[in-house]
Design goal:
Blueprint: H1 3-16, H2 24-40
Length: about 50
């Protein structure tokens, strides 16, 4: 489940109230950074051909 890290981060962001201060452009940039980080996390299972 690749969205687990993203959900955890979003919950943390909302808990801190940061999301209210981010505009759309900054939020998209944060998501892009998060997507890049999630690709670098070895614990994230990749779909492999059987």
């Amino acid at each position: 489940m690749q969205n687990f890290a993203e959900e955890a981060l979003l919950k943390e962001v909302m808990a801190q109230g940061w999301l209210n201060k981010l505009n759309q452009k900054q939020f998209k940039k944060a998501r892009m950074i998060l997507a890049k980080l999630s690709q670098e996390i070895p614990d994230v299972p990749k779909q492999q051909p059987h």
